Amino acid sequence: MTTTTKGEEEEESEQVVTPWDVSAGADGKIDYTKLVREFGCSEIDENLIERIERCTKTKAHPFLRRGLFFAHRELDEIVSAYEKGEKFYLYTGRGPSSESLHLGHLVPFQFTKWLQDAFKVPLVIQLTDDEKFLWKDLQLEDCRRLARENAKDIAACGFNPETTFIFADASYMCSSFYVNMVKIAKCVTFNQAKGIFGFTGDSNIGQIGFPPVQAAPSFPDCFPHMFGMNKKSLKCLIPCAIDQDPYFRMTRDVSHRIGGYKPALVESRFFPALKGESGKMSASDPTSAIYVTDTAKEIKNKINKHAFSGGGATIEEQRENGANLEVDVPWKWLNFFLEDDEKLKEIGEKYGSGEMLTGEIKQILVDVLTPMVEEHQKRRALVTDEVLDVYFNPTKTPKVFLDLFREYEEKEFGKWEKKKGGGDSENDDLCAALEEKMKLEGATENEEGCAIGAPKSEDWLRIRKERMQRDAPTEGSKSALKKAAKIKAAAEKKAAEKAAKAAARGEAAT
Ligand code: TRP
């Protein structure tokens, strides 16, 4: 995008934000308001956060409350649909270019984990080993190995292995994925790609061809084992840092033309580097970041020696003027990782006014980060190759679409007991419930090779929408009453069973 008009847009050194290059403007800061305006996304407001809390019955994550995830595209539409009972899936990813992750890398995954738990939806995680091979001076074999190593750190964030699919491009690439890629690719000219990504004649053609690889997972039929073969079976929500926006702007531009929904986005600010905010942290300078592999001693040293401080140069100056919170890295990092709102507020007031010294806020940060990193290391040690294989398995069993939304279905049908191990009678049960559901939805049988119960035709969605409108509780229609009675009966049955069990246990004890 070039502007020929002279005026406020023209600065000495413009900030540059692309998926591969983030550099601040002349004042050393990223102007997020300007970014939102340029990219054409929207800021997340209080009202939207409240709606999310209401429909998930969950307090918003600190990243959301504190405006660290601050921008979106059509997140409000995802929430509106969710309020009416429609589910979606989450898609995020990582380019595996380093052996271990730093704290900034954890941010989108911690947030995605919260989204998954709050909305109770499935998740796909893309590891772009191909992207890193094409852009970095790395062998493909190393990128593939790093993808698997990084996946251990990602899994250690606590994703539900039953509803989370992690894949590396070079390993997963399959027909359904490729079909989406070529369809997307055909919609984007080289000139458009140059405009969006800044490709030049020197870019290798793998790079130029890469954007459809990152775009494709925005469509559920890339994952037939999870979502079935219908490109419109589910909407997609993508949590990411705002530098990934160009990929998904492109995706949203072509969505309708290839017959899919536009993916929605929820986007974060950049995690400030230890040595001061000017975009991303540098992997080539180990003191510019704290890694999830760092020891307690390293964490303490790095923060004390390298964390950029907005405090006064001397104790007297700090006492006199207080700290400049705008540039202070310990303060910024506490905003990410200190959960207690009250405590954070108090620290901000005391440090900002000079009552608290730089050494003190640094110590608080050390005390917050050390247990967090140690916890992570413990959880990572538990991610064995077998555990990882469960996440990477592209033929998850049971291959049942509705299983991904078990809680929702339980509520609707009261039939969805937790099924594990899978005996025949359990399977019969499951199939019966599915059949009933499909009959109710007016769906027909599924094609071979796709998740059982996954919606197949676009009719299915139309039928479902009509059903939802018809069944809106306010209308008090026959079917809504019937459904309510069914839900009530199921809940009562469950409660009675629970009470009976508790009583039996009580008797045994006395
Ligand atoms: N390109 C991203 C990176 O280099 C990785 C990625 C792939 C991603 N798909 C994504 C990030 C979806 C966010 C959302 O880190």
Automatic annotation (TrEMBL):
<dbReference type="Pfam" id="PF00579">
    <property type="entry name" value="tRNA-synt_1b"/>
</dbReference>
<keyword id="KW-0436">Ligase</keyword>
<dbReference type="InterPro" id="IPR002305">
    <property type="entry name" value="aa-tRNA-synth_Ic"/>
</dbReference>
<dbReference type="GO" id="GO:0009791">
    <property type="term" value="P:post-embryonic development"/>
</dbReference>
<keyword id="KW-0648">Protein biosynthesis</keyword>
<keyword id="KW-0547">Nucleotide-binding</keyword>
<keyword id="KW-0963">Cytoplasm</keyword>
<comment type="similarity">
    <text>Belongs to the class-I aminoacyl-tRNA synthetase family.</text>
</comment>
<dbReference type="GO" id="GO:0048608">
    <property type="term" value="P:reproductive structure development"/>
</dbReference>
<dbReference type="InterPro" id="IPR002306">
    <property type="entry name" value="Trp-tRNA-ligase"/>
</dbReference>
<dbReference type="GO" id="GO:0005524">
    <property type="term" value="F:ATP binding"/>
</dbReference>
<keyword id="KW-0030">Aminoacyl-tRNA synthetase</keyword>
<dbReference type="InterPro" id="IPR001412">
    <property type="entry name" value="aa-tRNA-synth_I_CS"/>
</dbReference>
<dbReference type="GO" id="GO:0004830">
    <property type="term" value="F:tryptophan-tRNA ligase activity"/>
</dbReference>
<keyword id="KW-0067">ATP-binding</keyword>
<protein>
    <recommendedName>
        <fullName>Tryptophan--tRNA ligase, cytoplasmic</fullName>
        <ecNumber>6.1.1.2</ecNumber>
    </recommendedName>
</protein>
<dbReference type="GO" id="GO:0006436">
    <property type="term" value="P:tryptophanyl-tRNA aminoacylation"/>
</dbReference>
<dbReference type="InterPro" id="IPR014729">
    <property type="entry name" value="Rossmann-like_a/b/a_fold"/>
</dbReference>
<dbReference type="GO" id="GO:0005737">
    <property type="term" value="C:cytoplasm"/>
</dbReference>
